[in-house]
Amino acid sequence: MYSKVNKKEEKELQFTYLGKPYVKVFDESIKKITIEDGYIYAKNDRMFDKWYKEECVRVFSERIRMRIVDFDNIPKFSLRIRNMKTRWGVNNITKKIITLNSELLKKDPVLIDYVIVHELCHFYEANHSDRFWYQVSLRYPDYKQARKRLRG
Questions:
Q1: Residue 9 has pLDDT above 70, yes or no
Q2: The pLDDT of residue 2 is above 50
Q3: Rounded distance, CA 55 to CA 60, Å?
Q4: What are the beta bridge partners of residue 78?
Q5: In a 10 Å sphere around its CB, with 0-12 CB exposed, 13-18 middle and 19+ buried, how is residue 141 labelled?
Q6: CA–CA dist 36, 46 (Å, integer)
Q7: Terminal Cα-to-Cα distance of the chain (whole angstroms)
Q8: 152 pLDDT band (50/70/90 cuts)?
Q9: What is the per-residue pLDDT for 10?
Q10: What separation in angstroms does the CA of 110 have from each of 32, 66, 75?
Q11: Number of Cα atoms under 13 Å in the Cβ half of residue 111
């Protein structure tokens, strides 16, 4: 369908999406992002970046909908997405804004779920007290393993 790339280019174009490795392939004739056989095909970087931002919104919103059913009395909140250097997520409980790191899209969905559960639990406990971790453990029993994987 599309021309393949050599090994040097392939290394430069490696990309992880939802925990799986892919290689980005750019071709000016492409009209829509296509993912197949370990490749993500896009017209150019601009098209890829636009798709990436849209995927963050789609995937994170979907994962939040799946995980929020485990919670009672969560206030209506806004979701923001941005690239952060030192955090996977932040919950501004005063402004009711959860911000997720756009780099999370590269992680396995179960790790995305952990970060979402972690941030939602901050609506119950604003700090990282034992009570907070208890809330997390009720909704994500393997949270310690997920934390290790995110750090590694």
A1: no
A2: no
A3: 8
A4: 97
A5: exposed
A6: 20
A7: 36
A8: confident
A9: 54
A10: 28, 12, 24
A11: 20
- β-pairing verdict for 20-26 and 39-42: parallel
pLDDT digits (tens, 9 = 90+) for 67-106: 999 999 999 999 999 999 999 999 999 999 999 999 999 9
With beta carbons less than 8 A apart as the criterion, state whether 93 and 4 touch. no
Token pair belonging to 124: 């119950």
- Report how far residue 36's alpha carbon sits from residue 57's, in angstroms, rounded to the nearest whole number: 22
pTM: 0.90
Contact (Cβ atoms closer than 8 angstroms) between residue 96 and residue 76: yes
Structure token digits, residue 97: 């804004």
Residue 24 per-residue DSSP state: E
